Amino acid sequence: NEGKLWGGRFAGCPSPELEALSRSTHFDWRLALYDIAGSHAHAKALGAAGLLSADEENELHRGLDVLTDAFTSGRLQPSESDEDVHGALERLLIEEVGPDVGGKLRAGRSRNDQIATLFRSYLLDHARVVAALVLDLVDALAGQAQAHHGAIMPGRTHLQHAQPVLLSHHLLAHAWALLRDVDRLGDWRDRVRSDSPYGSGALAGQSLGLDPELVATELGFTGSSANSIDGTASRDFVAEFAFVCAQIGVDVSRLAEEIIVWATREFDFVTLHDSWSTGSSIMPQKKNPDIAELARGKAGRLVGNLAGLLTTLKALPLAYNRDLQEDKEPVFDSLDTLEVLLPAFTGQVATLTYNTERMAELAPQGFSLATDIAEWLVREGTPFRIAHELAGACVRAAEAKGTDLDGLTDEEFASISPALTPQVRLVLTAQGSVESRDGRGGTSPRRVLEQLAELRSVATVG
Ligand code: ARG
User: Fold this and answer.
1) Cα angle at 87 between 11 and 34, to 5 degrees?
2) Across the chain, what does the average pLDDT equal?
3) Residue 160 backbone phi and psi in degrees, to 5
4) Chain mean position to CA 173
5) Alpha-carbon span 34 to 114, nearest angstrom
6) Where in the cell is it found (predicted)?
7) CA atoms of 271 and 289, how far apart (whole Å)
8) Ligand 1 centroid to 111 CA: how many Å?
9) Which of 15, 26, 73, 158 is catalytic?
């Protein structure tokens, strides 16, 4: 059992089958620098507690720096016999500084508090990366909104024509949802950052007089775990992170679905840029929205990672159980997925060309100005219940005549109700309709400009 972290009480070696099952270095090696940072901090705590001489502590820091350099240059690799990143790094450190000093580092810590801490550190760093990528997408949406400010499109509910809206308003709706995801990452960060589990030991804490707050501060946390059992057993920070990744995937997927539909010949709202779309191996004419489709597909994968993780956690007794090792791959996958997907998706969004003429032409169609008739009647003194009935009667009459609402004559309006005077025509344009929706959050050009400024003022990594 040489080289094992736990050889003492075993007479025989672990079977190769057990080793193969147990090994996690193929996925946890990416945590190596975080484990080394934890070791530096832990060495300081051991020194401060009088458990290492100044020379010993310095020698450990030196050895750890050698490992850092070797890792950074790609020379440091785990061996077949290493179970996990922690064991591999301890073996490599001992090779560098010798067993007398190297063998002192493990005092007062367990892989259980180690992994719980360094997985937090790793995710804290990547939360910033993801937040910045989401903000790039928000920025691309804001840029398109600004470039097309004033363009009118059919607003839909149930995918049916509902009311005309500004294209900029619609694009910013996606941006606000994504900004909330950035906010969620910020909330998550504040919670995780205040809870460094180092010092929890295996589950019960440590007896060596180590200062968990010292380690926490060294690692950039604002505080240490109040409960050592919770510190080593909880993984809600992983699940919550996976949720935010999944929500980002879902928000991106909703926009992706629209881009796919908008790019169809039937809609013809957008043209994809050549560099951000793909062709077909057999049909020479094809131009496909693959980025949007991959985004939609990967949302399923992100949701799956969250569901798998929650299923692993469900019904696990306290404290640490080896099942918890299954927390890493799904979240690594979610991060890898987003870190590849978001730059491509942002590029596609930023380079879309909008067919604003066609959007404007379709905006008033499908009786989408019926609500404007009803609200005009209300402004003229008709109770809304009656106004709704009368506007509905206008739709029925126009449908029977085979025209849109503005195809009805003054006489036809008057025959529906004397309240429908020729002035009603003032609201029978898409332009008039959007301009009239001038309350905060509404689609009037003035309000959307205000909204764009508001969005830009809050769209930063907090
Ligand atoms: N590699 C493990 C994990 O990721 C940490 C090791 C804890 N192992 C143990 N036998 N207590 O959860």
Assistant:
1) 165
2) 96
3) -100, 150
4) 16
5) 10
6) Cytoplasm
7) 10
8) 6
9) 158
Report yes or no: 104 and 75 within 8 Å, Cβ to Cβ. no
Amino acid identity of residue 373, one-letter, is I
CA 112 to ligand 1 center in whole angstroms? 6
pLDDT at residue 254 in the model: 98
pLDDT given for residue 462 in this prediction: 59
Ligand 1 pocket residues where CB is under 6 Å: 24, 84, 111-112, 115, 320, 322, 324-325
For 105-143, give one letter per residue: b (16+ CB within 10 A) or e: bbebbbbbbbbbbbbbbbbbebbeebbebbbbbbbbbbe
Q: How far, in Å, CA of 304 to CA of 302, rounded?
A: 5
Catalytic status, residue 280: yes
Residue 155: φ, ψ to 5°: -85, 145
User: What is the DSSP pairing of strand 353-354 with strand 270-271?
Assistant: antiparallel
Q: Which of 176, 171, 169, 255 lies closest to 430 in space, CA to CA?
A: 169
Rounded CA gap, 270 and 257, in Å?
13
Q: Tens digit of pLDDT for each residue in 197-219?
A: 999 999 999 999 999 999 999 99
Cβ neighbours for 91, distance < 8 A, ≥ 6 positions apart: 3, 79, 82
ipTM: 0.95
Contacts of 210 (CB under 8 A, 6+ apart): 42, 45, 46, 48, 49, 108, 199
Instruction: State the CB neighbour count (10 A cutoff) for residue 221.
Output: 24
Rounded Cα gap, residues 26 and 20, in angstroms: 11
Please say if the pLDDT value at position 457 is more than 80. Answer: yes
Closest CA to 346 of 242, 262, 250, 256: 256
Q: Which residue type is seen at 135?
A: L
22 annotated active-site: no
Residue 354: count of CB within 10 angstroms of its CB:
18
Tokens of 78: 């785990």
Q: Is 48 within 8 Å of 57 (Cβ atoms)?
A: no
Domains observed in the chain: 16-107 (1.10.275.10), 112-361 (1.20.200.10), 365-458 (1.10.40.30)
pLDDT band at 286 (very low <50, low <70, confident <90, very high): confident
- pTM of the model as a whole: 0.95
Measured from the Cα of 202, ligand 1's closest atom is 11
Residue-wise pLDDT for 211-262, tens only, equals 999 999 999 999 999 999 999 999 999 999 999 999 999 999 999 999 999 9
pLDDT tens digits, one per residue of 358-401: 999 999 999 999 999 999 999 999 999 999 999 999 999 999 99
Mean pLDDT, range 397-416, rounded to an integer: 95
